[in-house]
Design brief:
The chain is α/β, with parallel strands linked by helices and 69 residues long. It has one helix at 45-57, and strands at residues 2-7, 17-21, 26-28, 41-43, 61-62.
Length: 69
């Protein structure tokens, strides 16, 4: 299962992402292709950091981007 999360746009116009592939135990912080807000669950930066830390603790592999999303 692929889970997609994104933060709201901050004051500088930046949005932060994390995409998890639970079957392959991989995660990426770079979305592949076009970003549409309806495709990503909106979370806070604090939640994003917590998800990233949990993925690292569960031995998820960090990859640059997913090719098949």
């Amino acid at each position: 299962m692929i889970l997609k999360f994104a933060t709201r746009r901050d004051t500088n116009g930046n949005t932060y992402f994390i995409v998890l592939d639970t079957e392959k135990k991989q995660y990426s912080e770079t979305p592949s292709g076009f970003y549409h807000k309806d495709d990503y669950m909106q979370i806070t930066r604090r939640e994003l950091r917590a998800i990233k830390e949990k993925a690292k603790a569960d031995d998820y592999e960090a990859i640059s981007y997913f090719q098949t999303l």
